[in-house]
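## Example pair
The file below holds two records. Each record gives the amino-acid sequence first, followed by its C-alpha cell line.
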Amino acid sequence: MSHTDPTTQGVQQGRYTVVPRTLIFLTAGDRILLLKGAAHKRLWAGRYNGLGGHVEPGEDVLAAARRELAEETGLEGVDLHLCGTVTIDTGVNPGVLLLVFRGFLAEPTPVTASAEGEPQWLPVGEVVNYPLVDDLFVLLPRVLAWQPGQPLFHGSITSDADGLPRLAFSA
C-alpha cells in the first residue's frame, strides 16, 4: 500500500472531511492588502476579504498561497508565514479548513486586478469602516497581532441561530 492509498490514511465514507483553502493578508507599514470582491461573484461581491483560494491536488499549502497571491494580485516572491488555522463548519460534510498566511512588505507594492476582484491597499486603522466579510471583524485583529516566531492561532467558525458566523479561538 502507498501513502496515497485512502485506506492507509484512514479515509472513510462518513468521516468529517475538509476542503483546504488559503487566506492571505499582506501588510506594509500602516496598510493592509484586501481584495474587493468582483461584482459578478456569487459570494461576497463588493465586500473586502483576504486573498487566496483552494489548494489544488498535489499542491502544498505554501505553493497554493503563493499561486493564489500571484493570480489575484500579480505579486510574486513575497515571504509568507503560516500564522493560523480556522475550521469552518458548513453544516454539511465537507467543511473548510482555512490556512491563514501573513506577509510583511516594506511599502505598498503595485497590484493588478483579476477576475476575483480588485486588490486594494487600505489603511489598517480604517479597515473596519469598509464592507468586510463578516468574520474579518474578529479574524483581522488576531492576524495583525501575530508576528513571526509566535505560536499559530487556531479558530473555528460556526453559525449562530440567525445564520451569522461566529468565530471562536482556542485558548
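Second record, same layout:
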Amino acid sequence: MKNPFTSFFDGMLDRVFSVLGAISFAQFPQFVQQYLQRLAGHADEARRIVERYKLAAERAGMEFEPYIERFRQDSDPVIAEHGSIMVEAVERLEFLTQAVAALQQSNMFTRPFVFLANLDTDIGWQAWLIFQPGVPTTVEGAVYALAGIAVGLLVYHALKWPVYKLRSARKGKHDG
C-alpha cells in the first residue's frame, strides 16, 4: 500500500519539475529576442565603421579592397596594423550581418540550432548579464513551455528512478 504522504509529495515534485521546466524553456524565445537586438546593434555599429573606411577610400580615389591592401602592405607596422584592423572590421560585419539574417529567418524549431551555430559568445554574455525574463505570449513561447514541461518531467523521473529501484530492492530483501 502506498503511503499517502509519499504519493502527495511525489505528485507535488512532479508538478514543480513541470512548472520549472515550462518557465525555463519559455525564456528561450525571450532571451533570443534580447540577444538579437544586441546582435543587430553590433551589426549596425560595424556597418557604420566599414562605411567610414569605404568613404575614406573613395575620398582617396581608390576602390575599397586595394585601399585596405595598401595599408596592409605598408612597411610601417603601425599602418600595416591599421590595414589588418580594417580587414577584421569587414569580416566582423559579414559575420554579424549573416548571424542577424539567420536568426531572423529561422523558425521556432530551427532557432535553437541557428542560435548556437551563429552565437557570438561576447554578445551572448552581455545579453545574459542584462537579461529580463518575461512571460511569452506567443505560440513559440507556448511550444517551448510545453517542451519544458516534458523535459522537466523526464528529469524528475530520471532522478526518481534510482530511488525507486533502491526501494524495490530493499523491499525485496525484507519480503524474502
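Notes on the second record: The two ends are 18 Å apart (CA to CA). The mean pLDDT is 86.
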